[in-house]
Each structure stands twice: as C-alpha cells, then as structure tokens.
Amino acid sequence: MKFLRNRLDSIHHHFEKGGKWEKFYFAYEAFATFLFVPNSVSGEKGVQIRDAVDLKRLMATVVISMVPCLLFGIWNVGDQHFLAIGNSAATFGDRILIGTIQVLPIVIVSYSVGLGIEFVFATIRRHPVNEGFLVTGMLIPLVMPPDIPLWQVAMATAFSVVIAKEAFGGTGMNILNVALTARAFLYFAYPTDISGDVWTYVGGEQLVEGFSGATPLSIGAAAVSSGANVVESLNEFGAGWADDIFSFSNMFSVSCRAVLEKPQP
Amino acid sequence: MGKFIRLKQGFDINLAGKAAPKVSELDPADTFVLKPTDFHGMYIPKLLVKVGDNVKAGTPIFHDKRYDKVFHVAPVSGEIVEINRGAKRKLLEIKILADKNVEFVNHKKYSVSEIANLSVNEARDLMLKSGVWPNLVQRPFGIMADPEVRPKSIFISAFDTHPLAPEYGILFKGQDHHFQVGLDILRKFTEGNIHINTHTEKEIATIFSQAKGIEMNKFSGPHPSGCVGVQIHHLDPINKGDVVWTINPFGVIQIGKLFTNGVFDASKVVAVTGSEVNQPQYYKTYTGTSVKKFLANNLKTDNVRVISGNVLTGTSIGTEGHLGFFDHQISVIPEGDKFEFMGWIAPTINKLSFHRAFGLLSFLTPGKERSLNSNMNGEPRAFVQTGIFERVTPMDILPTYLLKSIMAEDIDDMEALGIYEVVEEDLALCEFVDVSKHEVQQILREGIQLLQSS
C-alpha cells in the first residue's frame, strides 16, 4: 500500500497543470481515487465532517445487490439450454458453465465499451469519471438475450452512453435511462436478434421434438371447455394452493412453484 | 397555549468530547476581533475607527452602508491593533488588543416600570446605537433585521441539537431577570407572539420555564429540531412578503442587560468541545475572543481543526483564530488530510454514516461517541437522486430540487420550492449526508443572495 501510494505520488505531477500528461488528469484521477480515498478535507465554512458514504460506495452497493440476480441469470441460461435440448442429466455445474460462457462475455463487452467511452468523454470534457456506469454496465447484460451477438452489445452500449447520456451533458443530466436505451436501440435496429426465440440459448444443439408450456390460464380455459374441474386440473398442473393456506409457499412462491414444478418436456 | 410538534426526520450526530458541566474562568484573551463576514447580507461595512484608536466596550466600530444607524460595536475596551482586508479590499476583521479591565460606554438605565412604558421608537434607538441590534436575525434570508420593518412574530429556540452543542442551562445560568427584560422589550416590536421552543426530552432551563408573556412550544425529535427555521416552518410558516425575527437567547439577555445596566455587555460562556480537547468544559469570556488560551496545553494532537461554532455550520479558524459573533462553542476535531487505501469500499465501524450502504456498519452502534475527522470521504460528483435529503429535513420542502433550481438560477422555482423558509443551518445535515459532496450551505446562500439582489 505504501509502495502504491509512493508510486502514485511520484507520477502525480505529470498529470497536474503544466505536466506532460495534463490532458489525462481525470483518467488518472479515476484510477488514483479507486485505489485511495483522497486526502481532501472539507472547506473552511459549512459542514466540517462528512458522511462516510460516497458515490463509489453507493454504486458498488447497487452492483453488489445485482450480483445474485446475475448469478441466477447465469444458472437460468444453462438450465433453459439443457431443457431445450432435452438433456435432463446435466449437472448443476454444467448449467453454470454453459451460462457463464454465454453471459460473461456480454458483461465484459458492456463494461469495457461503456467505461472506455466514459473515460474518453471525461478526458475531452475535463470532468471526473462518474461511477454511474458501474451500475449501467451491469444492467445492460441483465436485459440482453443470452445469444445476442457481442458486436451488437458493443454498439448498443456505445449508442446509449453517447446518445442517452453524454449528449445531454453526462451523469445527472440524462433524461433517458441508459440501460433501457441500449435495449430499445437493439429492439429497433436489430429486431430479429432480440425478439422471438432468442431467450433460450440453443448453441447449435438438436432441439427436442417440441416443447411448450401452458400457463395456468390456458389450463383453466381448457378445463372449462372439456367440462373438467378447473381447480383439480390446476392442482394437477401444480398451480394450486399448498395444504396450509398461510404457508410460506402459498404466500411467497406460488408462482415459482407453478414454473418450477411444471412437467418437464 | 403552545403547540406540541413531533418531528421524525433528522439525524443526531453523536461525537466524543462533550463539554463537562463546569464553568471556569481563565485570564481574558489578549485579542478580540469583530468580523463583518459573520453577518449575512452585509452590503458594504463602513469603518468608523482606524488603527491605534482606543475604544471602550460599546464603541461603534463599523456599520453597514445600507443601515447607517445600526452600529456594530467593540465587545471589550482596548486599542485597535489590526484591520485585515481581503481581496478587493473586503473588510475581514478588526482586531482589538484588550485592556486589563473592561471599560464600558454608558447608556441610560431603565427601571422595570420605565421599561413597561417605554415606546418602541425609544427602545429601538437605544438598541441601534448600543450595538445589540445585530443579534436580531430576520427571516427570510437569515440576515440582520431591518429596523424599519415590524415582524409578524419572534422565535427563540431554547435548545441546541447540533453535535456537541452547549447546554443552554449552563450558558445562561442566573440570567433570568435580564432575559425577562429582554423579552419585555422585544414584545414592543411585534403584534404577534414571541415563541419559545423547547424540547420534550431535554431539561428546560429556568430562564425559559419562568419566562412570562410568551408562547411556549414543545418539539421532539432528532436534529435539526433545534434549528429555529424548522420550528418556524411548523409553527407559523413564512410566506412571500412575511418577515419574522429570530434571536438567540444570548441576544435577548444582552438586550435585557442593556436596559437594566446601561451597557453593552459582551460577556458570554462558551463551550470548548471536541474529541481532540483534553478537558472539554465551559469557559467565561467575551464575544469575539481569541481561542488561543482555551487550547493552550489542552490539545491531544497537533494536526487538528479548530472550529468556531459546531461541526455542521461552523467556520474553521485555526489554533490562533477568533470566535464568531453568534457562536457559543469551539469544536476541535482531527484534521483528515490522509489517504485511505480502498477506503471507498472497505467495511468500517468507526466512520459515521446515515446511509445503509455496503460496509457502513455504524448503524450497529448508534449510541457510540465517535471521533470524526474532516476528510471529505469521497470526491465531488453530480447530483444523484437518492432521496436522502428529504429524510434529514423535517420540513415540507424538497431540498434536492431546491438546490438544483438555485444552481440553475431559476428564481420562480426557488420561490415555489420554499427558499424563503430555509437558511444554511436548516439544510446543514443535507450537506453532511450528501453522497455527491456538494457544498449545500454555500449553494443555498448563493441562492438567497440572488433572490435578495433581484
């Protein structure tokens, strides 16, 4: 740590006004403040002590809260994949592996393209790099289908950061949500890659002969037309109530149960 | 009957170094200063003395060019030794080398029955020329009261909820009579009420509980319930065109002493507090005193920040500095000019936070007395909509939007969003909790100045 600090101190003067890398001050600052919270103190007048929170910590908290979501997404990509090709023998590890191979490149592309543009704009506009993209860069993979081409992710990220954020003046002045702009861009520019059967990653494998998933609503409709008992057919399907009306599964996971206990194709 | 108002939003900052309930007397300080910058809304201060002049306690030192009858006077007798000016010859401070014994400028004394029959004009004239008038602060804007305007009502906050705030019961002990006389004088200036606001969980000093002819209101809740702006907002909100006055109990006592003793008495008790002070306690002194003697052999470390006032609204003055006109407290905290490796994500229990973010564990020990330093704990950033300002502002205003409208210099929006109701101290907590490290109080004052000059 001492070593890092000394290194930073020894190159600091290059980035100050008049130094040879003066232009890249804010890029340098972003790295330096990532490593060390700066030694700046509060002003002469006004509040003399400050809350321990800062924007980095706030954004990092949001990113950390999104990690479970990302992990579930990774598992789900693998799970859906093996369901679609009819391989129910795949282990949990296989599912995670397939999911990781599909999802991680999207995350990496989204972060590197977006942060690259942020750094370029911070250097040109001479303002500090804002941490807001840490969250956006995670949200973009979360709203993308698993087999989206990576060049489309890069384009969508670039478009949304430039048009939805920087064109309005940067963080805090954008009127559009950056992550959703990326999604909307793809929806209109490459509709075939983001709608239809893109949400299940097949990966060139042979699909099962057919798979379908009825919703509880259509089961109900079918039951009515065939004259069967609606409640019984729903129970058979697994969308009914559990035994105890106030049980945990009734209160929180009825819809999950309906999905998870759906008969496998 | 007074009202009872329960406030929920807010945050009590619990710092180490609370003053022990003991009042000591040191040798009086050598130098005293008067800072025109303590008075908001001062147009151009016009000096009435020059270096080398001898002054008595109560001799006029300067007045605002706009109010040439309102004198700001010397707190002690002595010789003017220094007049400091800043950029563009702005008057910063007038330094007085104090005599051993304080000599006073003598004014007329009034008996209790004379005070009862005193006319407003006579009272006002004496208050203006004697130097007690600048104690009166006018809302909106938090500037010195205009002598020509009659206020709707007058508000006195009888408790202070700022971090390490001094107890009013100790500051104003034994001043009951002067306080009552001061109230009797002030009542002549308004048709409305004089509101004295107390806290349900704090001890009410006798000067307040014995006071007559006032409206006593009760508040509960964390800081900023002690800020008089918050109290006004709940008791009698200020609309456009209204004027109310606020005054610290010290000012009321000073007015009382002026009429009963005929002198401008600037003696006050101040609390020396903070985690870096060896013996935090109260001292007797005068307005504008040098803080040097209070801190001699009384500091734990050298790298400290000395603040005139409290840590939320005070001014950093350095170890050789002088106390501000309105301050009753000196806070000494560690200077935070250190780097911290990965400090933006490392878990911490020592640093205080109002937020619930990753690694901020101070909420586990809410009662703990903390020693906080002056580090910014982050870098300035653009506004991010966190909704946190509203959770520390117990008023029906939206600080985020108000601050944005001030930055955009949009006067219509500022008025609609309630800028008339707030001054710096009411939004000081917003500055503390701000994720983006804005200087909220400075932004607010700029907005107020814009509004005044428009």
Description of the molecule:
The complex is a heterodimer of chains A (265) and B (454). With 265 residues, chain A is mainly α. Among the domains of chain A are: 55-194; 216-260, no CATH class. Chain A has helices at residues 2-15, 25-35, 55-84, 92-125, 132-142, 150-165, 178-189, 191-194, 216-226, 230-237, 248-252, 254-260; one strand at 36-37. In chain A, helix 3 packs parallel to helix 5. The longest helix of chain A has 34 residues, at 92-125. The termini of chain A are far apart. Chain B has 454 residues and is of the alpha/beta class. Chain B has 12 helices and 21 strands. Chain B has helices at 112-117, 120-130, 168-171, 176-187, 206-209, 228-235, 249-261, 292-295, 399-407, 411-416, 428-433, 440-453; strands spanning 4-6, 20-25, 31-34, 45-47, 54-55, 60-64, 71-73, 78-85, 91-98, 137-139, 143-144, 154-157, 194-199, 215-220, 244-246, 267-273, 281-286, 304-308, 315-316, 329-334, 340-341. In chain B, the strands form 4 sheets. A 7-stranded mixed sheet of chain B has the order 1-14-13-12-15-10-11. In chain B, strands 2-17-16-20-18-19 form a 6-stranded mixed sheet, with no helix packed on it. In chain B, strands 3-9-8-5 form a 4-stranded antiparallel sheet, with no helix packed on it. In chain B, helix 4 (176-187) crosses helix 7 (249-261). The longest helix of chain B has 14 residues, at 440-453. The model of chain B has no long low-confidence stretch (mean pLDDT 92). At the A-B interface, helix 2, strand 1 and helix 3 of A face strand 19, strand 21, helix 11 and helix 12 of B.
